[in-house]
Amino acid sequence: MIDVLLLLMSVIWGTNYSIIKAAFRELDPQAFNAARMGIASAAFLSIIVSLQLRPRRAVNSIFQTPTRMTRRDWLELVALGIVGHFLYQYFFIGGLALTTVANSSLLLAATPVVIALLSAMLGQERVGPRHWAGAALSMVGIYVVVGHGVTLSGAGVKGDVMMVAAVICWAAYTLGARRLVARHSPVGVTGLSMTCGTLIYIPVMWPHIRQAAWLNLSARTWISIVYSAIFALGVAYVIWYAAVRQIGSARTSVYSNVIPIVAMITAVLFLGETMTMTELLGAAAVLIGVALTRSAPQTRPSEPCEP
Predict the structure, then answer these.
(1) Is 54 part of any domain?
(2) Which of 61, 299, 7 lies closest to 181, judged by CA?
(3) Per-residue confidence at 182, pLDDT binned at 50, 70, 90?
(4) What is the DSSP string of the chain?
(5) Most buried of 6, 178, 195, 223 (most Cβ within 10 A)?
(6) Is the pTM of this model over 0.85?
(7) 269 contacts 21 by C-beta, under 8 angstroms
(8) What's the pLDDT score for residue 305?
């Protein structure tokens, strides 16, 4: 079941590339991001508050857990909000606006390797040879698919650097939340940390928000904002952390390599682009790499430290 949900997450995030790129034609990237973060945070808070009114035993642990929040938990939520929502979202949206989809996809494909390396260094998970082989094969597949379009010169350099920063922030966010998602629900951790990040993001980006022509936006752009908020920042985030809690951060992160493949297929279906045999082989390598990683012996995550 978790694999099906992770594939759904990949579809959501993969299609989100084209959706937000199109919205940038009408709306400043950081203003777009502030709007979707505000909507997503409001939706999460509404769910969290409504669940408090229901008997805890009647709600799945993905949505609610009986563990009480401690001072350490709140401090970690604020830190996660800064790293995983304020900084990550700033670098991701800014980088995507400045560089190409090919460069973005390839750089973000390094996420599983970064997470696996940091996870092994911190002793959170044992990363075996088969997992490394699967991650490496997926990376090769990503390069085959988009590597021919990668450039490291010109105006896109700043965007590429921002995407690298986004990868580092996302890896730190994923690993940093391990203890919290073991104690609390993915919905609670995601929603509260996102709210913390949004409360910082909106004031910092206020000049971009104020200058945006909100009343002149098309219905398509508003739909893009809502879709990206509810599905990309809401549903997909919850799936991500539910998977981190169930199968570990290293294995979960490998599914991020499927996202560029979804983006490519979306372009073929809706933009009329063609897919070459080389690209098909690259896509196959990515999917085989994911399957290889999922078939690896179960890693042993470290036990979360109780306060």
Answers:
(1) yes
(2) 61
(3) confident
(4) -HHHHHHHHHHHHHHHHHHHHHHTTTS-HHHHHHHHHHHHHHHHHHHHHHHHTS-GGGS-TTT--SPPP-HHHHHHHHHHIIIIIIIHHHHHHHHHHHS-HHHHHHHHTTHHHHHHHHHHHHTS----HHHHHHHHHHHHHHHHHHGGG---SGGGHHHHHHHHHHHHHHHHHHHHTHHHHHHS-HHHHHHHHHHHHHHHHHHHTHHHHHHS-GGG--HHHHHHHHHIIIIIIIIHHHHHHHHHHHH-HHHHHHGGGGHHHHHHHHHHHHH-----HHHHHHHHHHHHHHHHHHTSPPP-PPPPPP-
(5) 6
(6) no
(7) no
(8) 30
Mean confidence (pLDDT) of the chain = 79
Pair of tokens at residue 257: 């390599």
Tell me the C-alpha distance between 76 and 74, whole Å.
5
CA distance 225 to 219: 10
Give the integer Cα–Cα distance in Å for 70 and 81: 17
Q: Can you tell me the distance from the alpha carbon of 220 to that of 12, in angstroms, rounded to the nearest whole number?
A: 17
Q: Which residue has the tokens 């084209």?
A: 18
C-beta separation of 27 from 166 below 8 A: no
pLDDT of residue 154: 54
Q: Which of residues 171 and 229 earns the better pLDDT score?
A: 229
Q: Across residues 249-267, what is the average pLDDT?
A: 75
The verdict on residue 281 lying in a domain is: no
pLDDT at 83 over 90: yes
pLDDT tens digits along 70-79: 899 999 999 9
Q: Given phi > 0 = left and psi -120 to 50 = alpha, else beta, which region is 248?
A: left
In a domain, 68, yes or no: yes
Number of domains in the chain: 1
Range of the domain at 201: 2-117+155-247
In a domain, 36, yes or no: yes
